[in-house]
Design goal:
Largest sheet: 4 strands, antiparallel
Oligomer: single chain
Number of strands: 6
Distance between the termini: 40 Å
Number of helices: 2
Strand order of the largest sheet: 2-3-1-6
Structural class: alpha+beta
Shape: globular
Radius of gyration: 15 Å
Order of helices and strands: EHEEHEEE
Strand content: 25-35%
Helix content: 10-25%
Length: 97
């Protein structure tokens, strides 16, 4: 088999600012077992920034959720779902100055 896809974590953007981590988990739970659902919050105000991450136990479940939820309207907002990008040490040639 080819190398394992690292696609079990999804990036969800354009969420309502009233969405909670429990709402996010509930929204994606029909697609499979979720290990983590978290929202990114502003450190000063502690309010959600409107995006978050959902991590599935299975890459297949994550792909099914991505296909089903990308471009859907949730709480009156059009959300976008994509595979989360991992941080790498390749920030560019000038980043090591």
């Amino acid at each position: 088999m080819a190398k394992r896809l690292l696609g079990s974590q999804l990036f969800v953007s354009r969420l309502s600012f009233y969405t909670t981590p429990n709402d996010l988990k509930r929204l994606f739970s029909p697609f499979g077992a979720i290990t983590e659902a978290r929202l990114v919050v502003d450190p000063r105000t502690q309010r959600p920034k409107g995006f978050g991450f959902v991590t599935f136990e299975s890459d297949v479940d994550a792909q099914n959720a991505l296909k089903a939820m990308n471009g859907k309207i949730v709480d009156g907002r059009l959300i976008f779902v994509e595979v989360a990008k991992t941080k790498t040490s390749e920030e560019g040639p000038d980043s090591t100055k």
